[in-house]
Amino acid sequence: NAGVTQTPKFQVLKTGQSMTLQCAQDMNHNSMYWYRQDPGMGLRLIYYSASEGTTDKGEVPNGYNVSRLNKREFSLRLESAAPSQTSVYFCASSEAGQEAFFGQGTRLTVV
Amino acid sequence: GQSLEQPSEVTAVEGAIVQINCTYQTSGFYGLSWYQQHDGGAPTFLSYNALDGLEETGRFSSFLSRSDSYGYLLLQELQMKDSASYFCATYTGGFKTIFGAGTRLFVKA
Questions:
Q1: Could you read off the pLDDT tens digit of each residue along chain A, which spans 111 residues?
Q2: Cα separation, B83 vs A79, whole angstroms
Q3: Residues of B in contact with A59 (CB under 8 A)
Q4: Which residues of A touch B49 (CB under 8 A)?
């Protein structure tokens, strides 16, 4: 039972490069989320998708785009990476928002 | 706006009881959740309170007072493995969950 799977687990980018973080869940949840976590800080919501076909901005959406490809998959794209985007990125899914299940995270460094 | 306040650090002794408080201010509120995160790991769900009162799950209990915009997580019979960060989070409807900055719990022998 995989739950929420994120790829890649680690990534180093040069400033200006682009990349897509992939996330897939096998729990048939409607809602999916992308968070970033900076050292010693909580999780900040980047984007979320309440259901297939919808996406909405969270607290810190600037510099990111998302795609809800289908019910299972929700990707996060950095079009032009900046050092300020160095962080740990977590994807999560939930059925109704009360209990979220998280992936293991992607540790991204932008140099 | 939305904000959640919780202490940055708490230290307690193994076997003791510790309470981690959380106050919130949100434009809409459906419930308060608690998550645990060990260093290098992913957050894992502990509890959810939609109504006022205490919810108990083993050694962990969570309390909510909607009128005071306040909740807490109570950990009993502390163990070394409870050393972790604990986050409160508000579910504000619209399928949106916002997290506090987290409380780092240190359990000492």
A1: 679 999 999 999 999 999 999 999 999 999 999 999 998 778 999 999 988 989 999 989 999 999 998 999 999 999 999 999 999 999 999 987 678 999 999 999 999
A2: 38
A3: 98
A4: none
